[in-house]
Amino acid sequence: KNPALMAECLKIAGEGLKLYKEKVYDKAFEKFYDAAMLGYPTAMFYAGVCYHNGEGTEQDSVMAFRMFRNAANGGEITSMHNLANCYANGYGTARNDSLAVRWYRSAADSGYAKSMTMLAKCYEEGVLIEKDNKKSHAWYSRAAENKEPYALYKLGCHQERMDSLAGLKKRATRKSPAVEYFTLAATLKSP
Which burial class, exposed, middle or buried, applies to 190 when counting CB atoms under 10 A from its CB (0-12, 13-18, 19+)? Predict the structure, then answer.
């Protein structure tokens, strides 16, 4: 890639982000769109957010989907997660369970904890993919290592069930890992 072009894209997108934070959405969208048209994946993500929320432009699910898809194909991790959500919910495109799982996995494998949690939920509930409690627990554990609040909460629930099944009263004596999971999840604002 052209370093001068990427520097210009970064500058334009940075101006857009500043405007977005100031809630000057129309001008922010223009900046994001300009940088997106130059091929900058982060700007594509923000343009997708604007299309999704109707900020600075008309709300347009198809354009949001396209921006997230282009950004995801460019390696933008949050867009991978958003693209998976689009496929999972038929937002801006036809519902496609296998592509939803593929993009959640791509984002999760890139370290995005929310996608790890979504994969865990999918395996736990048998949604989008075949139910598999071992894989669900493994994905919740990976997400919890990244301090993802809902994953910590779910691991706390799992540990509490395990303590109960074992007939242990660890939770009452504050020795169970469940308490640690719940405390950290609460600190991070989970359910």
Answer: middle
Q: Where are the alpha helices (DSSP H) in the chain?
A: 3-21, 25-37, 41-53, 61-73, 77-89, 97-109, 113-125, 133-145, 149-165, 177-187
- In the chain, what percentage of residues exceed pLDDT 90? 79
Question: Which token pair is 7?
Answer: 């520097």
Burial of 87 (0-12, 13-18, 19+ CB in 10 A): buried
Query: What is the mean predicted confidence (pLDDT) over 12-31?
Result: 97
| The pair of three-digit structure tokens given for residue 37, joined into one six-digit string | 């048209």
Q: Which two tokens stand for residue 113?
A: 């904890």
Chain segment 73-108, per-residue pLDDT in tens: 999 999 999 999 999 999 999 999 999 999 999 999
DSSP 8-59: HHHHHHHHHHHHHHTT-HHHHHHHHHHHHHTT-HHHHHHHHHHHHHTSSS--
Cβ-proximal residues to 59 (8 Å cutoff; 6+ apart), any chain: 51, 52, 53
109 burial (CB, 10 Å; 0-12 / 13-18 / 19+) is middle
- The pLDDT, as a whole number, for residue 176 is 66
Q: Which of 21, 29, 19, 36 is nearest to 56 (CA)?
A: 29
Contacts of 108 (CB under 8 A, 6+ apart): 115, 116, 118, 119, 139, 142
